[in-house]
Amino acid sequence: EKGGYDHFMLKEIYEQPRSIKDSMRGRIYPNEGKLQLGGLKQYEEKFKNADRIIIVACGTSWHAGLVGEYLIEEFARVPVEVEYASEFRYRNPIISEKDIVIAISQSGETADTMAAIELAKEKGATILGICNVVGSSIPRLTHAGVYTHAGPEIGVASTKAFTAQVTVLTLIAFYVAQIKGTVTTGKLVELLTELESVPTLVEKALKANDLIVKIAEELKDSRNCLFLGRGSGFPVALEGALKLKEISYIHAEGYPAAEMKHGPIALIDNEMPVIVIATKNSSYEKVISNIQEVKARKGIVIAIVTEGDTEVKNMADYTIEIPHADEAFLPLIATIPLQLLSYHIAVMRGCNVDQPRNLAKSVTVE
Ligand code: M6R
């Protein structure tokens, strides 16, 4: 049932080229620069008039939400707030009938997320779901939604569900952009054509596995780990840190790279691995300065770089290459090496990768 892999998690990591493809199948028409999301059709007017979009989720799904914020604000120009479902429901949040709430959940059973949905519903908002498990509770609570087609995810650490969620959020961002006319059809042709090639790029990113095994060997005895990223690389850093802590029990933190100097820099010494998303995009030069700050304090830098990069390679202790892609698609690709890194470290430490201690696949308590 593990398809020849040692663990479900590894199988699910390798399934991503397919699960990403399945999550966009039938929904994009790159040649025409068009998208179709059946579940949302009825809500076109609502999207056109929405003052803002509120995303509620927990854990990894919340990280996907942060990527969604970048994409929706960038392309659809609607303000987005991303909230931990648990915090949202215990405040007295200001919600109106013009708000659209998007709830993201792999299992569709997360108690905190369900409670947040109920609260927003009472206040008259339109609730949309992004779920993976068909027929679960959340799709039944929401007005409409878009399923991720990741297939069953058995490993407690979410991998393919995360990239499927990000894929669907990318589709929603482009879809709202199409409705609102904030992106030209020509640009959508370009974006959708590149989105269609993402599964191939993910396949290429998976080829770094052997190198990642060697890096894991060097990091496996670390007690702490810092993950840094800027822009949409920041949620990727958060997700990388969560993956490492939940399956390997190494303490890890994800930080916006520029925030390092406001505190965490005090932790850096020659025993501190710092994993940096340093791909060639708008924040490249700034990230390079952050790497210099880490190196000046003798931290161990593991950089995720764009294929062919030389500048970061000269500074970092280890570099992992990923194929070049538009900034919009970076999270889908840069997440892959971080998943593999956590996986191998956890295996080397003898951890129960698929069933980490104290964790359950769906968290049905509040
Ligand atoms: O099923 P959900 O997406 O609602 O679950 C949310 C979190 O419990 C989940 O993402 C959790 O953080 C995972 N163990 C992360 O790998």
Automatic annotation (TrEMBL):
Keyword Membrane assigned: no
Its EC number(s): 2.6.1.16
SIS domain segment(s): 43-182, 215-356
Annotated active site: 361
KW Repeat (keyword) present: yes
Record keywords, A-Z: Aminotransferase, Cytoplasm, Glutamine amidotransferase, Repeat, Transferase
GO terms classed as biological process: amino sugar biosynthetic process; carbohydrate metabolic process; fructose 6-phosphate metabolic process; protein N-linked glycosylation; UDP-N-acetylglucosamine metabolic process
GO molecular function ontology, one term from the record: glutamine-fructose-6-phosphate transaminase (isomerizing) activity
Gene Ontology CC annotation, any one: cytosol
Subcellular location(s) per record: Cytoplasm
Reactions listed under catalytic activity: D-fructose 6-phosphate + L-glutamine = D-glucosamine 6-phosphate + L-glutamate
Free-text function comment from the UniProt entry: Catalyzes the first step in hexosamine metabolism, converting fructose-6P into glucosamine-6P using glutamine as a nitrogen source.
Record note on quaternary structure: Homodimer.
Name of protein: Glutamine--fructose-6-phosphate aminotransferase [isomerizing]
Species assigned in the record: Pedobacter puniceum
Gene symbol of the encoding locus: glmS
